[in-house]
Design brief:
With 691 residues, this protein is α/β, with parallel strands linked by helices. It contains 26 helices and 9 strands. The strands form 3 sheets. The protein has a 5-stranded mixed sheet. A two-stranded antiparallel sheet has the order 1-2. Helix 5 packs parallel to helix 8 (189-204), helix 6 (164-176) runs parallel beside helix 20 (441-468) and helix 8 (189-204) runs antiparallel to helix 9 (213-230). The model has no long low-confidence stretch (mean pLDDT 90).
């Protein structure tokens, strides 16, 4: 721009120069083709696509649900408590329960896997103080975050590689599913394997190619991480992927003349990826060797114990289940999705016959592997895993965790294929693709399936909370209510009385309603919490305050119970803990034989966790009704616990609001009991004498 002064001083002109900089070149990138996946829409192709959240939006939505699950889901497997939460607690505090699996004699639990969860514990201790309950939930939130990242990456891969509608179904099925609610925040190697498999499939959904080393390498690394760090058997999920990477053309154009060299190249690609993945053994073996005090290859130990046991040992010592166990379990967690997930391959075969155009654009796959073959390979892992697990006599719910997201994927594919059948049938009847494109019948079908699954899943989640959450809540009452009461009545701390409703309304903030109590004042009391027949529902030391020792009392159970780790100094580091993990207890065995020396006398207990069913009382020589002995025991906290044996199948499986539904169930009481004489004596001993 320039200005010029005219003869008339009151007039000024402005002239603009043409820009001298070059105009930026317009982007030549084409918009992403949403019809480039393995499955193709036949109607509404030019219309605006249904809403599919972006990666970041999906992560934020999913993370809300996973954090809620971390805070409110229960612990459903005692193996999670004793083999993982307790060793982690030992690393943190220097004491806790030890199972025979973590004994150096057997070493079939990986300290490398447990150490992955140590960082959130230490971060919480640094910023929030030494209380254990925040650390417990920090670990669960961390697990929820990892699961969310893997699930969202998998969901977006389905959108891009398979079909955007299928991806949308997968997202909502993952979001609300009852099985994912539990598995996503469970501290179990099978959950870790689920994370790894989910991430691996995000890469494995791409078609194989000799030029795409990234796909093979990243998927192999993810599968191997789940197997080496988590659970070695989860590698079976990768069998279809490995066969595809070795033998299926994918996007390669292979002629008979080049077949041999092509096979050599594919084998090199897979072996290179496997060699890189094998490096994962180095840190895992090193850490396990450090903590066990001897060379320990934990993945091999797990395989050897479960696959090659001798006549006296093996997983069958811990129970066997019928062949239909997993089907029943899947129906509980996946409800209406189960028939869709199991029908995925048959539905694909039907689609190949009646709606072949839906299986991708034909010109994209000329001289290449057909989308039918590629999709069949991606649906196969669910069948492979279910077949392997069903053949095993020892069955547990957590053994299915590695394929939970894949069950949602299989079900979503089947729902989409059935939608295609409806579209084909509608056009055949009306002879009008236009009417089919305007009809809401197809969207109503998919909405009904997804909505029904989500509603039933939420009902199942609520059933777990309402019916079975009492052990965690009642155990926490020892720290939240009873220990503060002890400190208050003995004069060690002063707790003001509860505020009235008017006083609470006048408060500007709730932050100073209750002072922060130093629970460490209780440590020299020598309090003992005992657990008998409810040992398998004990939620772990993370919910028990420091200074309270947990011991077993004899019950009707006659198997192997955990012992105690060799205690190390509370402020000792990981190297000090390694000294304790190397110690060999002589009272632990892998034969599931009872060790009477692990029991304490009930007369020495200060507190007791017990479950009682007053409507159907049952007593035994070692299982009296402690709740009914009110002269000896006083209730500290009790919550309802479903009596599943005397409740109808439907109402005990699902939770619905309303008295009509609830009145059909029967309940017992899960209680924290206080030994009147023992606790009263300790209260007197520690009462502060004031002048």
């Amino acid at each position: 721009m320039s200005t010029g002064v005219q003869p008339n001083a009151n007039i000024q002109t402005i002239s603009f120069r043409r820009p001298t900089t070059n105009k930026p070149a317009e982007s030549t990138a084409k918009p992403k083709n949403r019809h480039g996946g393995l499955l193709q829409d036949q109607l509404r192709r030019a219309q605006r696509a249904p809403w599919c959240p972006t990666w970041s939006a999906a992560l934020r939505i999913l993370l809300l649900i996973r954090v809620a699950g971390a805070m409110y889901s229960g612990i459903q497997d005692c193996d999670e408590v004793f083999n993982f939460w307790e060793p982690l607690h030992y690393l943190y505090k220097g004491y806790g329960f030890q199972t025979w699996e973590t004994s150096p004699v057997y070493s079939i639990r990986s300290w490398a896997y447990i150490l992955l969860h140590y960082l959130p514990v230490q971060i919480t201790a640094t910023f929030l103080g030494p209380e254990k309950r925040p650390a417990f939930f920090a670990v669960r939130i961390f697990l929820g975050l990892v699961s969310s990242l893997c699930e969202v990456t998998f969901y977006r891969a389905v959108v891009d590689r398979v079909n955007y509608r299928v991806g949308r179904y997968v997202f909502f099925l993952l979001l609300f599913n009852a099985g994912m609610w539990t598995a996503s925040t469970a501290f179990l190697p099978s959950s870790f394997a689920m994370y790894a498999n989910t991430l691996a499939f995000a890469y494995a959904l791409e078609p194989p190619s000799s030029d795409n080393l990234r796909r093979t390498l990243f998927a192999t690394l993810a599968f191997a991480t789940g197997a080496v760090v988590g659970w070695p058997f989860s590698l079976a999920v990768a069998i279809p992927f490995v066969l595809e990477a070795l033998l299926v053309d994918g996007t390669d154009k292979v002629t008979p003349e080049t077949r041999s060299s092509w096979l050599v190249g594919r084998w090199k690609q897979v072996l290179t990826s496997a060699g890189v993945a094998a490096l994962l053994f180095v840190p895992v073996i090193a850490l396990d060797t450090l903590f066990y005090g001897k060379l320990s290859i934990v993945p091999w130990n797990i395989v050897k114990y479960n696959v090659f046991p001798d006549s006296q040992r093996g997983p069958e010592l811990y129970g066997t289940e019928p062949a239909h166990f997993y089907l029943s379990n899947l129906l509980l967690n996946f409800n209406v999705l189960v028939p869709f997930a199991l029908a995925a391959l048959p539905a694909l075969a039907v689609t190949y016959r009646v709606d072949n155009k839906r299986l991708g654009e034909r010109y994209q796959y000329a001289d290449k592997s057909s989308p039918y073959t590629l999709l069949a390979i991606r649906l196969a892992p669910v069948y492979v895993w279910l077949a392997i697990m069903t053949l095993q006599k020892h069955k547990e719910e957590r053994f299915l965790f590695p394929i939970y997201p894949l069950i949602c994927f299989n079900a979503a594919v089947t729902v989409y294929l059935v939608r295609g059948w409806l579209e084909t049938a509608f056009i055949a009847v009306t002879n009008s693709p236009y009417q089919a494109s305007r009809s809401t019948l197809f969207s109503q079908f998919t909405l009904s399936v997804v909505a029904a699954s989500c509603i039933l899943s939420v009902s199942r989640i609520m059933a777990h909370w309402k019916y079975y959450h009492a052990p965690m809540s009642v155990t926490h009452a020892l720290e939240a209510a009873e220990v503060p009461r002890l400190l208050n009545v003995t004069g060690l701390v002063f707790i003001p009385p509860p505020l009235t409703a008017q006083e609470r309304s006048e408060r500007q903030s709730d932050e100073d309603e209750q002072p922060r109590i130093d629970l460490g004042l209780i440590e020299d009391w020598g309090l003992r919490l005992c657990v008998g027949k409810e040992w398998h529902r004990f939620p772990g030391h993370f919910l028990v305050p420091d200074g309270v020792r947990v011991d077993w009392i004899k019950s009707a159970f006659d198997g192997m119970l955990p012992g105690h780790f060799a205690e190390t100094p509370r402020l000792g580091g990981l190297l000090a803990r390694a000294g304790g993990t190397r110690a060999v207890r002589t009272d632990l065995n892998d034969l599931n034989e009872e060790a009477p020396q692990l029991y304490t006398e009930v007369s020495g207990c200060d507190y007791l966790l017990d479950l009682d069913f007053p409507l159907h009382p049952a007593e035994g020589a070692h299982e009296p009704r402690y709740v009914a002995d009110e002269e000896t025991w006083e209730r500290v906290a009790c919550q309802p616990f479903l009596d599943a044996a005397h409740s109808p199948l439907l109402t005990r499986t699902l939770w619905m609001p309303g008295e009509v539904w609830q009145v059909r169930n029967e309940y017992g009481e899960f209680c924290l009991l206080k030994h009147r004489a023992n606790v009263g004596k300790k209260e007197k001993e520690h009462t502060v004498r004031r002048a």
